[in-house]
Design goal:
- The protein is an alpha/beta fold.
- The chain contains ten helices and eight strands.
- An eight-stranded mixed sheet has the order 1-2-4-3-5-6-7-8, sandwiched between helices.
- β5, α5 and β6 form a beta-alpha-beta unit.
- The radius of gyration is 22 Å and the shape is globular.
- It starts with a strand and ends in a 27-residue tail after the last helix.
């Protein structure tokens, strides 16, 4: 693992010699002042072992460089998070770690808002695939609905849309409200949880329904997966969580053009050497 601000990378040296051709997944979050540490994740080696580079964008809105970095990406500065993320994707392509056709982006919760807004801004210019897990993509409607459990306290992060300045600003980036018929969208996997109290299941469902009406929808894969027994952090239980990871990784690998691994030969069922048959007694 090594870091080159504003991104962190995990890959292998042998893959870096294949400039521009390696598949790459760029993660991002950028909200609430939470730093996105390049911590150890055993499941990501399922991607690394298949030749995928894993990168993290440390965008404004997170706490990677302290309080000022957080405040530079919240409220009326929120769009800084999006432009930072785009700059990271562009830089990774320029530095020949990958290319747009083999690059994917991943965001969960507020990170889903990040990748959703970026997707509206640049389409598939810098990446071909998006995974948005429990994404906060119907931002304006949620912030206007004070009957939802977290709306009022979330106003400190996003603003109060009953004030015109904040209403217009949130409207200008809310992913659901900014789908464009002129944009060329990437492949997209949207995931929600029926019992999610933080990001309601209908947010990814609404965005999916809107994108299905897009005039270029037949040119891209669009999948909505709603877990009927999960909350904000996914299904409970070790193996159920791994199944969710496997679905996301399958989607990423398929659309990044990574071939399935060749299974090793089954030595247990290999044919045993045959002994010469004995001659019948005379």
């Amino acid at each position: 693992m090594y870091a080159v601000f504003p991104r962190s990378l995990l890959d292998s040296f042998s893959r870096r010699v294949r400039a521009c051709s390696a598949p790459l997944v760029l993660w991002g979050y950028g909200a609430y002042g939470c730093p996105y540490d390049g911590d150890f994740s055993s499941v990501r080696f399922s991607l690394v072992d298949r030749g995928v580079t894993c990168a993290v964008a440390h965008v404004r809105g997170g706490g990677d460089l302290g309080r000022y970095w957080y405040e530079a990406g919240k409220l009326l500065n929120k769009k800084n998070s999006f432009t930072d993320f785009i700059a990271c994707a562009k830089k990774l392509a320029e530095d020949k770690y990958s290319n747009p056709k083999r690059m994917a982006v991943y965001g969960a919760s507020a990170g889903g808002l990040l990748v959703g807004a970026v997707m509206n801004m640049v389409g598939d210019t810098y990446f071909s695939t998006v995974v948005a897990r429990v994404p906060f993509v119907d931002t304006l409607s949620t912030m206007l609905d004070t009957s939802l459990p977290l709306t009022v306290i979330e106003q400190e992060e996003w603003g109060h849309p009953e004030e015109q300045e904040y209403f217009e600003y949130i409207l200008s980036y809310s992913p659901y409200d900014n789908v464009s018929d002129e944009q060329q969208y990437p492949h997209l996997l949207l995931k929600g949880g029926l019992n999610d109290p933080r990001v309601s299941y209908w947010e990814p469902a609404k965005l999916c329904a809107r994108l299905r009406l897009h005039p270029r929808a037949p040119l891209r894969t669009l999948v909505l997966h709603t877990n009927m027994g999960a909350g904000h952090f996914g299904a409970s239980g070790r193996y159920e969580e791994l199944k969710e990871d496997a679905l996301e990784f399958f989607f990423l690998l398929k659309h990044l053009g990574v071939p399935p691994p060749v299974p090793p030969p089954d030595t247990d069922t290999a044919a045993a050497p045959t002994s010469p048959s004995s001659s019948p007694p005379s």
